[in-house]
Structures are given as structure tokens and as C-alpha cells.
Amino acid sequence: MEPVHHFSGRNLRCDSCGGRMYLNKQESKKNQAPVHKRNYHARGDKCEAPANIRGDWADEFVIAAFLRLVGGIQTRTTVVVPGYDPAPELNATVAEFTAQLKIQGQQKSKHAANEWQKRHDALDRRIADLEPREKTEPQRTVVGTGRTYADAWATADLAGRRGMLVDAGARLDVKRGTRGGWRKLDTRGVDFTMNSELDQAAEEPRAHPPRGHSADRVPALTTSSARAPRTHTGWPPES
Predict the structure, then answer these.
(1) What's the predicted TM-score (pTM) here?
(2) What is the DSSP string of 110-160?
(3) Could you give the CA distance from residue 97 to residue 29 in angstroms, rounded to a whole number?
(4) By three-state DSSP, how is residue 188 classified?
(5) How far apart are alpha carbons 19 and 174 in whole angstroms?
(6) Collapsing DSSP states into helix, strand and coil, what is residue 191?
(7) For 111-138, how does the pLDDT look when each residue is reduced to its tens digit (9 = 90+)?
(8) Which of 14, 16, 155, 218 has its CA 20 to 30 A from that of 190?
(9) Alpha-carbon distance 191 to 232, whole Å?
(10) CB-CB neighbours of 35 under 10 Å
């Protein structure tokens, strides 16, 4: 089965030049895992230290980091209370009332005259009811859903999970690797950040960590869009 990648190259960047990294499925190489690479040659760019990272390693690190930081935070939704403008109905009712006046006294039967009077009175009452009403604007209120991001992640499909990472402004910067670092991910060579409202929420203390994601699964991570000065102490070697 082909590996599933939650994190796209749009949010996966080379630490050296800041350029996007693209997934190379390496279909021509037997038993080789797909790799995200900074293929600067093909795009005519310059990069002094192009980076690469295995696709599954990037996925695992990003998911663990994301859930560690925000998994215990309650998701929110916006409840919209519609506004109201009496003007359209008032104008339409006045127009009908005016048209009614033009046929006043033209009824040839008592029944028709009675029905005209009933409609006339109903329109008059409705106009009197609408006139004092004021226009109100729609109101939006953000409320908690009672579910955490970890809950939402567990039930979301692939598109939903990717959307959560995009909405959080998730980004992974990858440093160029050193030889001998291909056996496992050296977390010193990757920097996970977020750039959204979740940034501040992730820094607020929470009563408990997200279920199934203990705090020691990944190292302490940056949770702001400002990145620390970068040093190339990489992990997997360049290919």
C-alpha cells in the first residue's frame, strides 16, 4: 500500500534557502522510502545546503508535534445569529397597501367588499408593526465544541487532517543532513512551527495532555512564527 502523507511540500521548507521541498516517490529505487527533497537544480534556484527528509519521518514528526502542542485544546466553532432588516418587508407591504387603495369601492358584492376590508386592515396592522422595528446586524459568537483537536484528528479523514495542519499554519523547516544520519530522524535538524491563533493557545497551560500523546514523545518545540537562528547540525545525509 502506498504511504499516506499528511504534510505537503507547500509547508515543508529547506532550512538553508527557505524553498519548498517536493516529494520524490523513488519508484525506480527498490525498497526506498519516498523522500521530500529540495530539488533546486530543476527550478533554477540556488541553495548552499539543500535538505531532504523521508516522507514517513516528516509525517510522524509533524503529527506528534502538532498533537503534543494542540491535542488537548478544545476546538471551537462560530455560531451565527442572523440579522434582521424590516425594510424589504415594510416596503413590499406598503406597496401592496397602496395598490389596495386604488381599488377601494370597486367591489360589486358585499363579500368582496368584506374581503377587501379584511386585507386592508391586515396590511395596515402589519405596517404599524414593522415601522418601529430597527435593523439588527448578524452576530457571530465563537463557542467551544466540547471536543479537543486530538478528538477531531482521530475522526478526520486525510483531507480533514491536512486541513487542520494548513489552518494551524503548520510548517516544518529541515536542515541539511550529515553522514550516518539515515537510520533515524535526528530531531535537532527539524524545526516545527505554527502561525495561527493556535500558536498562543498552545502556550497556555492545560489541565491534561491529549489522550494517547504523552508529552515526552517529541522534544520541546517552537510555537511561534519567529524562528531561532539556524545552524546546520543535520540528520540524514544528502543523497
Answers:
(1) 0.61
(2) HHHHHHHHHHHHHHHHHHHHHTT---B--EEEEEEEEEEHHHHHHH--HHH
(3) 81
(4) helix
(5) 10
(6) strand
(7) 999 999 999 999 999 999 999 999 999 9
(8) 155
(9) 12
(10) 21
Question: What backbone torsions phi and psi does residue 175 show, to the nearest 5 degrees?
Answer: -90, 155
- DSSP output for 62-108: HHHHHHHHHTTSEEEEEEEE--B--HHHHHHHHHHHHHHHHTTT---
Integer Cα distance of 229 and 186 in angstroms: 18
Q: Can you say how many angstroms the Cα of residue 133 is from the centroid of all Cα atoms in its chain?
A: 38
Burial degree of 181 (CB within 10 A; 0-12, 13-18, 19+):
middle
User: What is residue 210's DSSP assignment?
Assistant: P
If you average pLDDT over residues 33-46, what whole number do you get? Answer: 76
CA distance 151 to 223: 21
Pairing of strands 52-54, 35-37: antiparallel
In terms of residues, how long is the chain?
239
pLDDT band at 182 (very low <50, low <70, confident <90, very high): low
Q: Are strands 22-24 and 35-37 parallel, antiparallel or unpaired?
A: antiparallel
Tens digits of residue pLDDT in 185-222? 888 889 999 887 776 666 665 444 444 443 333 333 33
Q: Are 55 and 35 in contact (CB under 8 A)?
A: yes
